[in-house]
Each structure stands twice: as C-alpha cells, then as structure tokens.
Amino acid sequence: MLLLPEWTDEWDARAHDFVQPDEGAIYERCVRTVLADREMVRLLGKRPGVDRPQVRFQLRVPTYRQFAVARCPTSQKRVFDKAWEDLAETRDKHETAAAATAWNWWAVSLLLVVGVLTTLWTFGFLILVLLWFVMPLALGLLVPRAAVWFRNLRYCLLATGHGLAWVLQRIELGLHAARWGQTLQEEGVRPVVAQLINHMLGDDPDSLFIPDGHDGLRTPRAQYYMVETAAAHQLKRKLTHLRDGTIAVCGPRGAGKTTLLEARVEAADFGLIAQAPATYTPQDFLLMLAVKLCRRYIEDKGYEVPEFTRLSPFRRFTQRALGRMRRMFRWSTHALPAGCLLLLGFSSSVRSLYGQYATAVVDLGKQWAGHVSDLGLQIWHGQAAAASVLVIAIGVIWWKARAGSWVPRLLGRLWERLSTLLGASLVVMSCSSVLIDMTDTVVHVNRFPFSITFETPNPAPVLHGPPLNTAVNVVVILALWLGCRALSESDAEISFGKWDIDMEKIFAPLATMSGVGLFFYVANDPYTRSLLADEENPLRIAVIMIGLLLVRIGGWTPQPQEPLLVSRCRNYLYRLQTVQSSTSGFTTGASQLLSLGSTHSTSVSTIPPNYPELVEVFRGLLTLIAAEKARSNETVVIAIDEVDRLGSDTKALAFLAEIKAILGIPHVHFLISVADDVAAAFVRRGLPHRDVTDSSLDDIVHVQPSTLEESQKVLAERSSALKAPHAMLAHTLSGGILRDLLRYGLQIKEMQEKANSYELTDISRHLILEELSETLAGFRTLLSKSQWTQETSSILNDVRTLGGHLRNPCKCTYNTLRHALEHFAFSTPPAPATPRDPVSELQQPFNDPQPLIDEACAYAYFSLTLLDIFSTEGFDRRTLQAAMEGPYGDPERLAEARQELGISPYSTRALITKIREAWSLPPAPTPLPNFPRPRPGECSLHPAGT
C-alpha cells in the first residue's frame, strides 16, 4: 500500500468539504481526521473505555459540536452561513423560472450557445457584440410582451442566468466550506477531542507512557540533542569576557563536563580536545597534544597531513609511479579521442583561416619586429634620448622589484582582466553573428492562413512555418531539462509516510528524457536545422571555445606557496613522530695492484625532544597560531578532559603543576575538567595556604546536577514519549546527573515492555525494584568483605531475604516484598555486642560494616519512598497536595535526597523523613499492605495464583 505524504491528507480534506459543504458532514469529517491523527491514536486503547468508537459516540452529542464551533472565529462562520443562504435563494429563483416556462430551458440554452459560437466563427466578434446589444432592444420595442413564446423565452433566459449564478455561488460555497473545515478542525475539533480524551482517561492522563522514538536516548553524546544548561550559559559568558586564560570545569561524574567541553570546542573557530592520561605522564601527554595541534592546524588550512608509513622507499616510489600512470591513462582515454574529434571538426575552418590570414599575420609580425629592432638600434647609437631614459627607468624599477611581489601581482591582474575581456568579447561576437545573419533574412507574413516565409541573400531553402513556435518549444523543453536536472542534483527527499524517495531517482530519468527530446526536436525542426547547417558554424564554435578558454585562463592563478606556519607544523610533526638519521661516506683507493686505500663514514641521528624543549616549541607554535587567529577575530580553545581520571586530587594537582608551563598563552582559552577536590582547593585559595591552582587557573565553572526543569527539557528534546511524570521519575533516580538521566529515560521504555503496561504505577514499580535489587547485590558483595559475629549477622539475613524477593517480583508476592522492604528500611542495625580488642585490631585491622549497613538501609528507605510516591494512583493530585505542604513537598527534594546519598546516609534519612511527611506517607511500617492480591491466572510467574 502506498503511503502518501501529510499534505495529501490536507488536500483530501479540502476536496471533501468542497464536495459536501454541509455543516454536519464537515464536522464528521473533522472528527474522523482528528481521531486518525498520530497524537490521538497513541492515546486511544490505552485505558478501558477510551477507544475510537466511544470517543466518536461522545463527540456526536450536540454539546461538544456547539463547543467546537464556539471556539472558531464567528466572522468565518457567518461568511459560510451567508454563502449557504445565497445559494439557497439562487436555487429557488432558478426553480421558479424553470417552472414558469413551457419550454425546456436546457435546450434553449444549448441553442443560444451554438448560435453565439456560429456567429463568432462566421462573422467575427464585432457582429456578435452588435447582436448582443441590438437584439434585446428590438425584441423589447417590436415584440409584444404578452406573446407566449416571448414569455417562455424570457423565463428560459432567467433560468439559464440563475443556473449560471448557482454554479458560481456553489463554487464560492465550496471554497468557504474548505476554509471553514480547516478552521473547525484545527481551532475547534482538535482541542475539543484532546480535552475529551484526557477527560475519559481519568486521573493522571500524562502518566501514561506510550512508546515513541527514542533515538535521542540511544545516542547520549549526539550534539544536536544538546540543551544548554545554566553551566553552559555560565561558561559561554566567561569565555566572552575573558580574552584568554584557563578555566576549570568541575562537577560530579556524569554531569556533562565532557559534552560541555566538546560543545565549546566545536563552537570555537579553532579548537581541539585532548584526553588526560590515566597514568601520570605529562611528557607523553604534551607530545600527544603537540601532534594534535599540528595536525589540526594543517587540516584547518586545507593542506594534507603527512602520513608516516613503514614501507620501503622503493615500494613508495612504485606506488606513486603506478598512481600517476593510472591517472595519466585515464586522462589520455578522454583527451585523445576528444582532441581527434575536435581536430576533425575544426580542420576545414582552420585551413580556411590559415589561407586567408596567414600571410597578413606574418607580414604584421615582421613589421613590428622591424620597428622594435630600429628602436633598439636608435637607442644603441644614442639617437633616442627619451627612449634611453625610459629604458633605464624600467631597468631600475625591475631591479627594485626583486624584493617585492607587486610586479607579478600587477601583471597577473592585467592578464586576468585582458584575457577575460578578450574571451568574453569573442563569445559575444560569435553569438552576435548568428543574430546578424538572422536579421539579414527577409520575412513575409501572409494574412490568412498564418505563415512566415524567409528569404536570405544567400541561396538557401525557403522555410514555411512559424519560427516563434519553434523558439517557444525550444525554451520550454530547455527549461524542463534544466529544472529536472536541478531537482535531480538536489538533496531533497519526498516522504510518502515511512518511505523516503530520493529526488534523483524521480527527476534524473525525466532530465534524460527531456534532454533527448530537445536534441531530436532541434535536429528535426526545419528552421533550427537550417541554422545548424550554416557553413560558418564550425568557425563560430571555435571562436566561442577560444573565448571560454581565455576566460578560464584569466581566472587561473598558480597554487599559492605553502604558508610558513604550515611548513613549521609539518616539520614539527616529522620531528615528533619520526627518528631521522643521515649517513654520508667517502672512499678513496688505488688500483688493484696497490693495496693502499681509505674509507670515511659519518652518521647523524636526531635526539627525541625532552620535556623543556617540548614546552618551548609548543608554546611558540601555539602563540603564532593564536596571534594569526586573533588578527581575524577568531577564537582558539584547547580543552583538556578527564583530569579527574588520574585517581586522586594529589595526582591531579601534580599534573596541573607540570602542564602549567603551557598555560597562559595570549588569545588562547584553556578549558580543563577537574574533580571537585581541585575546584574546592581553588575556591578556598589563600585559606590557609596557596597551592598550584592559584597560579594555574583563572576561573572555575561548577557543573551542578540539573534541575527538574532542565531534566524535562533534556528528555523532551530526545523523546516525545517522556511526559512530566516520567521525567520526574528519571530525574529523581538520577539525582540530576545527565548521564544517569538518559540511562533511566531509556530504562523506562524497557520497563514498559517488561511490565506490559502503559501506566506509571507499573513502570515505576518495576524500575525502582530493579534498581534496588542491583544496588543491594552490590552492598552484599561489599558486606561479604567485612568481619561478622553471630550477634551482628542478622542484618545479612534481612539483606538476603529482601534480595530474594527482588529477584523475581510479581503481583502475587508484592505484599511480602513490601513487608520485607519496610522492615529493612525502617530498622536500625544493632551495634556490635562484643568490644573490640585493640591488640587484635593491630594484628588484623577490623573492617566495620556499620557504615555500609547504614548506607544500604538509607537507600532502601529512599526506594520505599519512591514506591509510595510513584506507584500509587492519583499522582497529579498527590503532587499538588505535597507542594502545598511546604518546601519539602517540592519534587526537586527527591533528587536532592538522591544526591545526599552520596554524602551521608544519616542526613539522607532525615531529609527523606521530612519528604514523607510532606507527601503524607506513613513514618513506620504499615500493619497490613494495601496492595490488592491478583486474581488466579493473572500472574505469569504463578499461573495458578499460588
């Protein structure tokens, strides 16, 4: 089935309204069109009682129809109603006139039309006009109105006139109906249908998750999905106010530091990004950075970056020779046949020109050569003082011009102007000669039948036929060919639903057909064939080709010399990436009869640059590049990413101390992503002592976790299926960390398929329990490395029990799972019963599991709170109630609780307790779970309901 594009649906709706301009039919058509819209279809069938038949049944109620009409402009509705009234009035007049006559008004009208056409064909337009004015006057004066035939003729004419008026008014009504239908659909029916569906969906219509495109979530590093956050605006503002300097970008892992650096490097006129080494090797890092700088600058200037291969010199020479031979062979396969054809075509014209002008050209050359030689002899003998002075001045100027380039530049400009002017003149003169030959033709135009006769001074065949038609046909076919060719070369596509058809596949064959048709038409038309058969055409073509060649040669410029800075970067690449050696030998000796001789050999090899030399050369090279870019008002950005990957703040500070030597270059912005520890050291600079950050960094940008509003913008940009409740769920679980936010956004789609439900309650339950299961498994692994006693090991049973329920959660076991989760989340782990032995601790350090237990309980407490908030019906209503309870009812506090888990479980528990109070959640385990037990057979894991 062929899927048509969306614009065909729009025109189909207009055609339907034009054919059926009834208000009720237009309303029904609008309802069908809106319900077939993709946005409405995705909402239908997701909850019981909300399907297409039910919605259409509700929309047939007159109240909804009146409500939809009331939302549209009243002026357009009045115009549509007025057109209906006028059409009905004209129809009544037509029916009255048709009923008042005894004749068939159709037959009378047909006879009148035939008579008018016959009069026009026979006597011309003037006679028809006279009859049109004279006949009504004569009938009115001479014929008595009481005559029966006069009355029948009069009513037939009235019926015909009203019929024609009805046709015109019907067309006008159709146009008004089409416009009214579009207005009613977009401004009336569509919002009414959307409101009705949301009303029928019941509570929390936005909590429905309907799978849609998730390409933005599958490509987290795609720059075209990037949404500028507060940190991005802050960094852009600092780069605008600082002419140069070093800016540190800090923030938690996954907050988007790398994406921020990549965006700034891409926005800069010249920039590069480098990853800091995982191990502390500043020399290797600077070597890599210098190589990337050289390669980036060479590519920016449009030159080829040298490749260092391990092939032998002979093999490289062989490959280059074979490549040139292949290019030469390809060139010759086109050049030789083309040259032979051109030589064959122009041979007659060239011989004719040579025979006519060769002697005159030779004589002219000899005459000018004689003049030049005579002038030279006069200067030599001192007979032309002025010429001698002029020659001396030219010689001095030529000698002075050795150090400048103005003379070659002046000659090049003169050559460009003269050759272009001469070539264009030759082309214009050659084309004008065709027009001159055509004007010499004598044209005779006969009165009737229409024909044109051409008579030329030269003996040529006489042509009969309209040359204007030939010109018009050639122009039309040529325009068709050019248009099809332009469309075939464009990158546009035609969309038929899910199919994308390339324009080239459609218009390339049409361009070929129109080109072939133009060729055959020109070749078969007698007028154009006579023009093509002119004996002077080869000469004209030769002059045109020479003119075009001169124009092209005038625009040619020799390849500019490679800039000095590019050569320096290329040499620097050879210096950094190769080991160069040079060997020279000298041998002397006598003949074989004498055993006397000597051999001398010398070898020179380069030494790899050390770190101080790398710093000096890198700074000098980057300074020159930045100065060149600054003269053009271009920005230079060097980004160093993943400095926090070094492991500790001590190593990061040591790394900054080493690369500090390359910082501070004029007109260069350095962006360095560092850990929060390094940023904290810069913030408290001078308190109580100074460190390397004081002299290395000029400013700092904190990439904070995103707010709920920013998270909603990010997810809305990448997926249209994630509404506000789903964005809030992903934002809460991620704590505003962008990397985790995108991961949870993609997991919501996965949980929808796993739960086989569109409801937020089911999706959130599966997602929260799965995250809790994975987290508790990690805690259990860490707890296994601690030392346990019989008194303190009860917590392990709770973790194991809860983990067992979380592995395969279902509706049947949810009551037991919730009871175990509440017991673990609200419980306080007991302290060790036996005191620690200091001597044994010195012999074997005691690994206290209490902090891990507290963290696990706090995370379980957080997960339980999310289950109570997101997995309970009435999410929108409870969100509004919590917001009215104070600041702890703000949804942003849930993400803050997730962030607080990375700092302290004790402060997290206190914050979650206040959040539960704002959301009216119980502060202790509930005695009886309120989750309903499923009916037998509903659970896939327990079909019998056991």
Write the layout of secondary structure elements.
Layout: H1 6-19, H2 23-35, H3 38-41, H4 52-59, H5 62-70, H6 74-100, H7 105-123, H8 125-142, H9 148-201, H10 215-218, H11 230-241, E1 245-250, H12 257-267, E2 270-275, H13 282-300, H14 313-380, H15 385-400, H16 406-439, E3 442-446, E4 451-455, H17 467-488, E5 493-496, E6 499-502, H18 503-524, H19 526-532, H20 537-555, H21 564-577, E7 581-589, E8 597-605, H22 611-631, E9 636-641, H23 649-659, E10 669-674, H24 676-683, H25 692-696, E11 699-702, H26 708-718, H27 724-734, H28 738-755, H29 760-783, H30 794-807, H31 814-826, H32 838-843, H33 850-870, H34 875-883, H35 892-900, H36 905-918
Parallel strand pairs: 1-10, 1-11, 2-9, 9-10
Antiparallel strand pairs: 3-4, 5-6, 7-8
Helix pairs in contact: 1-9, 2-9, 5-9, 6-9, 7-8, 7-9, 13-21, 13-22, 16-20, 17-18, 26-27, 27-28, 27-35, 28-29, 29-30, 29-33, 30-31, 31-33, 33-36, 35-36
